[in-house]
Amino acid sequence: MKHLPLTAALLGAAPFAPLPALAQDDTLNVAAQYEIKGPEASTSGFVFTRMGLTETLVNADPDGRLTPGLATDWSSSEDGLNWTFTLREDVTFHDGTAMDAAAVVNALEIARAKPGPLNGLPITGITAAEGAVEITLSEPMAALPAYLAEFRAQILAPASYAEDGSGVAIIGTGPYMVTSMDAPLSLDATAFDAYWGTAAHIPNVAYSGVSRVETRALMAESGDADFVFGLDPASVARLGMVDGVEVLSTAIPRTLLIKVNAGHPFLSDPRARRALSQAIDREGIAKAVLRYPEGADQLFPPSLAGWHDDAAAPLTYDVDAARATLADLGWTPGPDGILTRDGERFALTLTTYPDRPELPLVASVLEQQFRVLGVDVTINSTNSSAIPAGHQDGSLDLALIARNFSLIPDPIGTVRSDYVGNGDWGAMNWNNEAFATLVAHIARDGGAPADKAKAAAILQDELPVIPIAWYRQTLAVSNAVEGAIIDPFERSFGLQDLRWAE
Amino acid sequence: MKALTSRLVQAVVVAVLIGTATFVMMRSLPGDAAWRIAAGRYGYDNVDAAAAEAVRSELGLDGPALPALLQWLGDLLTLDFGTSLVSGQPVMHEIAHQLGASAALAGIALLLSVLIGPPLGILAGLRPGGVLDRCLLVVSTGLKAVPQFLLALILIVLLAVQLRLLPAAGHGEARHFILPSLTLALGLAAVNARIARDAMARIADMPFWRFAEWKGLSRREVLMRHGLRNVSVPLLTYLGLQFVTLVEGVVVIEAIFGWPGIGHALVHAIFSRDVPMVQGTALVLGLGFVLVNTCIDLIVRRIDPRGETEARA
Amino acid sequence: MSTAELYTQPARLPVARSLGASLVILVAAVALIGPLLIPGDPLAQSLLKALSGPEATAPLGYDHLGRSVFHRLCAALMLSPLIALAAVLTAGAAGLILGTLSAAMGGWVDTVLTTLADALLALPGLLLVLIVLAMVPGTATGFWIGLSLVLWVEFYRLTRAATREVLVSPSVEAARLLGFRAPYIFRTHVWPEIAPLMLTTAAFGIATAIMAIAALGFVHVGMRAPTPELGLMMVELLPYWREAPLALLSPAIATFALLLGLTLLAGSRET
């Protein structure tokens, strides 16, 4: 009987639907999960760089090699304390002003005063020189150019900032310029005529922040968005069957891992952490939940050359061995199947956050797999800040997180902050002298592949974090568009290289 | 006049209740607000102790409670909702921006429901017990038992996924209105139709109606002259009450369809502990309800000066 | 969470009510007896069976993590109705006590309570539940508190109105003169008046509460995974609609049946 009001409703709705479902105009519609907090590079800068509105001094190619951006060249002094970045000539901001050394210094100084990776660098001064910017350091830092490729180091025109340095507008140098911005959910941009590089082919682009992954997938399916970023595993499978949409997937330097409180009495012994690791069916999780071809058998994904070591002994799935190890550590099964030692149950809380839809899913799988081992895990899916907050006050047991090793294109940035500097998203209550020395050395002068492999081997053995899977980034593109690729370093959508299919 | 005064008292109590509740929330939410705000601002990849510290010192979150509450309520009286902790924009500005999107959605939903429900209800009410009346009873009972999110799910699966007639999400174009407003409208229409039907049936049973028919006026004329006016009173009263359903629907429906309105903003503000935003949106929704009902009281009085009917909310 | 309805419709056929009751009983029976007939764990996973079809031990097939949809559904059908029942009982008791108090004492007690109730009525219920959930996230307790706060107003208004009417009736006047105490008057005169209304309101309140829990689960702000909850199950299974339609349809149909049953049972008063 239901069709009666439904039909009536559709008839009633007809005047509001003058357009066919697959409208085609000259605007490329982009949908991704990110919301725009405002015209502020320190909070939403990644949306602006991805949309091609703003640029950084240094870029990175898909292999992570640094390439010229707004700086054509850079070099450091003998002692590694003075860096010179030669600026590209004849570059103008979207407001017509010139991108000169003074503007770059202004942008970098403002970025450095806000929370972010630049903030933690040993920078003593940033000065303008003739067609160049000079940065002086108090200690050598080989990865400095990589830090300048990070989105918060984007170069905006002086008019983009208020007196106090807060953002008021996005006036960049990119191939697209903002025409209107409606925080938090939408942004329109048009091609910038005076762009210094190859001009964009598609004249207009529009960004929509759509936080629900199901909704994004439906937008891709209905043709409502041409370029949909970040899909869940189920939608990838479904969209693969849909005509008119192509799904791309690329390995990215991001790892799904369990952050472990190595100071917790149950987990302080590396053997206990190895036992937990052996209880994880990585292949099952990868295939059934994430729909990836493989799980992670070490922390660093294959794309991170040097850090990933093919020769490393892989992490394995062996519940019996894990049980034996825990028995050696004095754990015996209680009446409910949960292990006990000295009257204490092996019960832990696994904290995770729903911002990435796969995390709660994997958490519920882990809960079951740890239960088989006799470990009682309670899932706490909450705000992402609970993890660094729990790290700081020491209350965290386990956390399931997706950690990006390319916040700056060189993994040393993340490794240094997470595993040496008591970083909030890395090792917790875990310190290793040999590892710290190796990393300090690599940070100073770049380091040889052997050093990186040695550092990675220490993490593999000690397991301050337990790797589970290497991420893939996914993208659904309409067949009306050609030339889409995924940037593994998640810096750009590559919109300026897209064109409408003939 | 008395009704207006009581509405005013209601509005003030609502404001104080929401103000205090959100203030207590600011102070008592589990965990540290600075962390949550930092996560909201910087995202999960970049929230860390330094970011939280920056937020804490910027917002001065550690002051004493009572002066802060008084300051808070004082600001409310001057309609100063403060600035969003996440975006740094004035809350008023954000709400004004989002209210338009929500109001457009709610307005179209209401319009659709009025176009669907009452005409069917009046037709059914003219012949109580007829085929249309029975069908309408079954359908409206069924629809009332379907929660809005389930209706949204059904419409998405049917119209967007299976038949691919309509976009499931997005905003900015006319066609984006259809699914979310239809979802809201069908639930409302089910109730509208019943009310119109009952009112019509009652009126059609009254002596003046039969007299008018006996006078030889055509059915259409009788309906226009006597029917619609009398049916509209209960309908209007009910529409005021439905504003609640609409507002609640808007919260859920906006979240499902990615509609950039006030409901979406509210859910997000709660996530990232943007208490001034929670307070602002809650106040606007609550006071909006009082305002709409006051207007409807007045309209109903105009249509039906005997004043027998009075909205109850 | 709509509010009281002014224009009562003519009482619906008792047929509708018995139909509603049978639907509710049917759903409850499945939820209670189902797991006894076919034992299974709503949380146990078998990743290899993810999204596969029905079999003897899992009559409704498996979800995306290889958990039996049937057993999750049974668990979910226990969870929300129990929360709803608890909230309605609390709200009913609070509404009854405060309503009687208000009517019996009048004066400022009545004014304060009525003003408070009116103000709460002006707040969309879902908003109130959301604010409470922000303080007590993802737990049954949060829902219980939030829903009780929303639902008591209705019980309060009904009790207050009915009690006021009864208290001025000649029979109560007589009872008072005869020296009967308040509890007796309440039991013999007030309660019989309001009992049928209260039961209708309770059925409607339970339906409202179940809808709210499911709706918030559906937008990911209600109960948390892996707890089996109706709204959460539906939103989790929505992406797999093409691959496993039965897995999505089962919770959708069960929710509809339960709510339809309660709506019919509540009868004509609500809308």
TrEMBL record, chain A:
This is Peptide/nickel transport system substrate-binding protein. It comes from Sagittula marina. Belongs to the bacterial solute-binding protein 5 family. It comes from the Bacteria. One of its GO terms (molecular function) is peptide transmembrane transporter activity. GO terms for biological process: peptide transport. PANTHER family: ABC TRANSPORTER SUBSTRATE-BINDING PROTEIN (PTHR30290:SF83), PERIPLASMIC BINDING COMPONENT OF ABC TRANSPORTER (PTHR30290). Its main location: periplasm. GO terms for cellular component: ATP-binding cassette (ABC) transporter complex; outer membrane-bounded periplasmic space. SUPFAM superfamilies: Periplasmic binding protein-like II.
TrEMBL record, chain B:
Belongs to the binding-protein-dependent transport system permease family. The keyword Cell membrane applies. InterPro entries: BPD_transp_1_N, MetI-like, MetI-like_sf. It is a multi-pass membrane protein. The chain crosses the membrane at residues 7-26, 99-124, 145-165, 177-196, 235-257, 277-300. This is Peptide/nickel transport system permease protein. It is found in: Cell membrane. SUPFAM superfamilies: MetI-like. The lineage of its organism: Bacteria, Pseudomonadati, Pseudomonadota, Alphaproteobacteria, Rhodobacterales. Gene3D superfamilies: MetI-like. Keywords: Cell membrane, Membrane, Transmembrane, Transmembrane helix, Transport. It comes from Sagittula marina. GO terms for cellular component: plasma membrane. GO terms for molecular function: dipeptide transmembrane transporter activity. Residues 99-300 form the ABC transmembrane type-1 domain. The keyword NADP does not apply.
TrEMBL record, chain C:
It comes from the Bacteria. It is a multi-pass membrane protein. GO terms for biological process: protein transport. Pfam families: BPD_transp_1. InterPro entries: BP-dependent_transpt_permease (IPR050366), MetI-like (IPR000515), MetI-like_sf (IPR035906). It is found in: Cell membrane. The chain crosses the membrane at residues 20-38, 82-105, 125-153, 197-223, 243-266. Residues 77-266 form the ABC transmembrane type-1 domain. Belongs to the binding-protein-dependent transport system permease family. This is Peptide/nickel transport system permease protein. It comes from Sagittula marina.
